[in-house]
Amino acid sequence: MHAAKIINRLSLMLVSSLCLALLIATPARSESPSTGWLTDANHPPLTSRVVITGAADPTSSTVNGFLEIQLEGEWKTYWRTPGEGGVAPSLNWQASKNIKNIEWHWPAPERFDLLGIDTLGYKHNVVIPLTFTLDDFNQTTLFNGTFTLSSCTTICVLNDYPANLTFTPSELEINPEALHRYAQGMSQVPQPSPLIEHLSTTWDEGAQRLEVIAQKKMGWTSPDVLIDGESQAVADVFFSVPQVVVNGNTLQATFDASSWMGKPNLSHTALNVTFIDDNFLAEQSSVPKSGIVTASTTLSLSSAILFALLGGLILNIMPCVLPVLGIKLSGVVTAQGLEKTKIRRQFIASALGILFSFWLIAAFLSVLKLTGHAFGWGIQFQSPIFIGLMATITALFAANMLGLFEIRLPPNVNTWMASKGNNSYAGHFIQGMFATLLATPCSAPFLGTAVAFALTTNTLMLFVIFTALAIGMALPWLLVALFPSVAKRLPKPGHWMKVVKIAFGFMMLATATWLLSLLANHLSSGWVVSLVLLGAMLLLRRTSSVYGKKIAVVMVAIGILFSATALIAASLTASRWATPLPADIAWERLSEPRIAKEVAQGKTVFIDVTADWCITCQANKIGVLLQDPVYSTLNSDGMIAMQGNWTVASPSVTQYLQKYGRFGVPFNIVYGPSVPQGIPLPVILSSDVVLNAIELAKGKTNE
């Protein structure tokens, strides 16, 4: 038994000796060079280290490593371009030996906001990959440097961290853990991406604004865009948080630029454009061209509501609503004999009619969105049924104002309604609805922006914006309801009121005729002429019944005489008119591939997206496009005029509008060699705006 124990002990000693011998004989695995964690006793929340991964390339004489920074709590450090505040990390390595260059690979940063100051950087932990380029790959390398790192919470601290390590590149062995950390860092570094199909940048020196337009194959989710550059011209420039608009695969980001050194000029200066999106990082280089950059259509909800209120209010003075003013004026004047309570209720009923009509439009657009159909402001005028219905209602209102008929209810119904307070509330409600529906062919300042915001958001916000539009348009009615004494201060009804009603009645009649003319886009000319003649016959017959045959004959004679006189006078004096309308521009059909082709050949392309039912479109055409010098410019050599017609439903035109965040007409844009991405123009045109955009698109400045 004792002998067995001795044998076991001897065996164990022998095995241990063999293991020790093998351990001594086996070369020790070299650890990757590292500075270890660097600290500053005066600032414990930040620690850092430099690690060499062991991965090296003798051909390029490079060695890979990384700077790792750990931060406690809410402390953060900064990106290569820190933003409005902060200091970017820096390294002084001039005392090093056998090192030619050290390249930083910057991971995508986070965006931070503190008291309105926008900064870019990192929290908690960040690995910044480094590439060391050496003078001699076979010589011992000494890294002797000092990192200067800024870290902030509500206060900021700037500290220096001396770092030293020595290694021989040719003798390095890969450390899997260090290489894994390096790979993690590199995976967060934005690189050029083939998914970015198109990238263009435009610098507007006058507005100090930069625009980025990028198209990505797989579309965008919730992108952020960062701008910086390596030249001194960009180093001192601060770029604001961008206003980003996404339409399908196209991203538009607009930045305001500023500098402590004065107004920057970024034309023809290389920029780095960094895209950060869900599961997508990319960094592309771009040289901006000079151009006009309009403010982005992205709004806060409060701004969109304000724009909707103003747009709705301005609709009251647009040509579309002008014929309804007679009804409004009549309602105000005839309310003088009523009590203030009844006046207030009448005008509230009209305001509710406006609100209800806007809600109907919002519901209609929501259904179109949910079912994948084309949608936009005024799109109901693409329907011949809607146009016919509106023409009929307008004609009935006109006949009523001309005194040709009145709606008479049975005596018992009148008695019941009178006992309830007033028998005109329903009529006022319908007037409000009618005014709203008749307003939709018009675009007004602020209206397009508010509608575009509403149509790109969710259903709830769409109803919120359209409610604000309704309140804006109903504001005159609400003011009378709030101060009913206003109605009693107007002149009493009399002969003047009859004249005004007849004048507005004829305006309503002209509106009905215009609406019937829109049916020419859906029906043959014969049908349209037949409908107009039928309406005229019914009008004359009713006039004969109410006012007598003599009045009807006089009306026909006056109509014929007026038309003949107008035609003769026009033919005799047309040459002496101040601004005679020339023949229409030789428009070519809108084609996006053709636009790019013509611009590539050095031509300038003017786009007009319009509709026959759009009053603002016709005002732009008659007042600007068909007047010199714009008319001559559009017909000159080197100019291509294209038109997209939205009078009837057109999926291609709708898609083109929505590409630019537009959901209604008019829409005008100019392309040229200097601005191939296009210069969108405002809703209401002027000669100066059009000519300046054309000259800028050509690469010139219109003095």
Automatic annotation (TrEMBL):
Highest rank taxon of the organism: Bacteria
Gene Ontology molecular function terms on file: protein-disulfide reductase activity
Keyword Nucleotidyltransferase: no
One BP annotation, GO: cell redox homeostasis
Location in the cell: Membrane
Domain Thiol:disulfide interchange protein DsbD N-terminal: 60-161
Gene Ontology cellular-component annotations: membrane
Record keywords: Cytochrome c-type biogenesis, Membrane, Signal, Transmembrane, Transmembrane helix
Main location: membrane
Span of domain Cytochrome C biogenesis protein transmembrane: 305-517
Record membrane topology: Multi-pass membrane protein
Matching Pfam families: DsbD_N, DsbD_TM, Thioredoxin_7
InterPro entries: Cyt_c_assmbl_TM_dom (IPR003834), DsbD_gamma (IPR035671), DsbDN (IPR028250), Thioredoxin-like_sf (IPR036249)
Residues of the signal peptide: 1-21
Stretches that traverse the bilayer: 304-326, 347-365, 385-405, 426-454, 460-487, 499-517, 523-540, 552-572
Protein name per the record: Cytochrome C biogenesis protein
Organism of this sequence: Enterovibrio norvegicus FF-454
